[in-house]
Amino acid sequence: MTTETRTRTEELTINMGPQHPSTHGVLRLVLTVDGERVVEVVPHIGYLHSSMEKIAEHLTYQQYLPYADRYDYLNAMGNELAYVMAVEKLLGIQPTPRCQYIRVMMAEMNRIASHLVYFGTLGNDVGAISVFLYCFREREALLDLFEAVSGQRMLYHYFRIGGLRNDLPDDFCDGLAQFLDYFPSRIDEYDRLLTKNRIFRSRMEGVGYLSPEDALSFGVTGPCVRGSGVDYDIRRADAYYIYPQLEFDVPVFAEGDAMARHLVRQEEMRQSVRILQQCVEKLPRGEVNVKVPRRIKPDPGETYARVESPRGELGCYLISDGTEKPYRLHWRAPSFHNMQAYPVMCKDAWIADMVAILGSIDIVLADIDR
Amino acid sequence: MTDNQPANNNQHLLKEPLPPELQQVLEGLMTAGSAGPEGVEIVTSPEHIIQVLTALKEKAVTPYNMLTDICGVDLGDDLQVVYRLYQRYSAAAAVIKVTVPRATPRLPTATGLWKIAAWPEREIAEMFGITFEDHPDPRHLLLPDDFEGYPLRKDYQYPEDHPYLKPDPTREELGADESEEAEGTDEFTQADDTGQPD
Questions:
Q1: In chain A, what are the domain boundaries?
Q2: Is A256 helix (H, G, I), strand (E, B) or coil?
Q3: Which of A98, A342, B35, B102 has the highest CB neighbour count under 10 A?
Q4: Does B51 contact A at CB distance below 8 Å?
């Protein structure tokens, strides 16, 4: 006589967030799990929704600029860049060569600073806490440089429609060159400390696979799509300002897993250093501002400006009705669209891997919710 | 028509006719089409929008196979949805505009063509009150489930009793300042204001 024991497993719905240390803000994930395996993830967003688009309709073009900083706070210079590009396109203004160089330098410095935060928080998420401290040491140097140009360490409000708040301070290029001298060796340090770490690699390799077809269908851009083997970078595909004159590579990794996205960002920091070195060398003299009317009233029309932010394609769609306030402003937020692919990446992953996958997308919740 | 309405949405795009191969592909599907420095612009009707998107994605000689964004616009009498497509690896854009009547704003969903369409359509649905038919997940996205009204419409009324949405009492004073300042300002460079030496 035998007794048959049947073990029956049942799917369980659990809630992760909104206050969870690995969600980089306020993100709520509703997971359906079978044991430790994830069956389904449903992201609930909107906890940081701040009506960025409605606010723009109530402010003049200049008044909106500081809001652009605040919406993706890790890439404040990049947001300002997209916004001023859009307004200048509406007005038919071309910034001066020196201004274009400085704007590109600021955007690339901000890219490094943003990737450093990514490195630090990803390390934190997967249990390598010390990396955070190393990354913030280097970020500190960049923030000092930002403070020197704009007086602010995080939300700069440095770009203006038609130019910049002020030219670079005298010793800025020396300070930046000094940083660029030692920073590549620090990237090697992160490489040894984190990327080549065996535990880290086993957490990152082979998890969170995103196929190139899915990446393109979901509109994933930035390091996430380049980690899936798609060579798509706005700085190349729709080059703006001085990028065509600069030498740099667009790192692409074909594996499509969390590690590939991580490696893209590590390599991108080296490329940003290359870009910055060329900018420091070639930076032309001259004016940084062009004359613009004090009251900005673009002719009725519409435009779309897009830049490559650290997270992907950042677009600003602007419609003018001829008054001094935008008729409609719409942000094409990279994190918003990258996040849509997250449930696909998490299919059949372990719950613990979800944290690593989320870290590898490098979301900023303020960017998602706007 | 309200005064706020843009008189001419496409002034920035120099009006040139669409390339013949696109005209052929979109024969009978569009109401207007033009080409300009920012890409091609196609105006179509809600009945044809999915056919236009499919044609651009699959039938065009160089297909516009990336949908980057969908955006809603309030035109006053009507609502408009703007689809922005790109050719992969290039700067060539196709902007597709659909106008839906304010009284019955309905559009078919584009989620069958691109997975990216899901969230932007949910956002437009809650912000502009446009129903996307057959959408796989038509819940609110950013706003709370019980939110009433469509906040990105121009006629949205802020609820007066909401503690965070009360009109700013200083607003009128600021408005007065603005009108005073409006006179007698010609041109200036920002450098004048900063007091920074050259």
A1: 12-369
A2: coil
A3: A342
A4: no
Residue B118 lies in a domain: yes
B142 assigned to some structural domain: yes
* Interface contacts A/B by beta carbons within 8 Å: 141
CA distance A262 to chain B (A): 22
A216 to chain B, any CB pair closer than 8 A? The answer is yes
A29 vs B167, residue with greater confidence: A29
* A246-271: pLDDT as tens digits: 999 999 998 889 999 999 999 999 99
Inspect the interface and report whether the beta carbons of A340 and B116 lie closer than 8 Å: yes
Within a domain: B74 = yes
Binary contact (A317, B84; C-beta < 8 A): yes
Please give the structure tokens belonging to residue B163.
């503690």
Q: What is the pTM of this model?
A: 0.86
What does the mean pLDDT of chain B come to? 76
Bridge partners of residue A160, in order along the sequence:
A163
CA distance A142 to A356: 26
On chain A, the residues whose CB falls within 8 A of the CB of B187 are: 291-294
Sign for the CA dihedral angle at A98, A101, A104, A106 comes to: negative
Hey, are the CB atoms on A232 and B89 less than 8 Å from each other? yes
Q: In terms of CATH, what superfamily is A12-369? A: Cytochrome-c3 Hydrogenase, chain B (1.10.645.10)
Nearest CA-CA distance, residue A92 and chain B, Å: 9
> CA nearest B108: which of B184, B157, B52?
B52
If one compares A320 and B174, the residue with the highest pLDDT of the two is: A320
Phi, psi dihedrals of residue A208, rounded to the nearest 5°? 65, 45
Closest CA–CA distance from residue A320 to any residue of chain B (Å): 7
Which residues of chain B make contact with A369, given a CB cutoff of 8 A? Answer: 142
**Is B114 within a domain?**
yes
Which helix (H) or strand (E) segment holds residue A98: the answer is: helix A97-126
* Portion 225-244 of A in contact with B at CB < 8 A: 231-232, 237-239
Q: What is the CATH number of the domain that holds B122?
A: 3.30.460.80
CB atoms within 10 A of CB B167: 9
pLDDT in tens, B60-116: 778 888 888 999 999 888 899 999 998 877 778 889 999 999 888 889 998 888 889
Query: What is the residue-wise DSSP string for chain B?
Result: --TTS-S-TTTTS--BPPPHHHHHHTTTTEEEEEEETTEEEEEE-TTTHHHHHHIIIIISSS---EEEEEEEEE-SSEEEEEEEEE-TTS--EEEEEEEEESSS-EEE--TTT-GGGHHHHHHHHHHH--EEET-S--S-SSS-TT--S-TTSTTPPPPTT-TTSSPPTTHHHHHHHHHHHTTT--EE-HHHHH----
Domain of residue B140, residue span: 20-179
Put simply, the answer to whether B67 touches A54 (Cβ < 8 Å) is no
ipTM summary value: 0.85
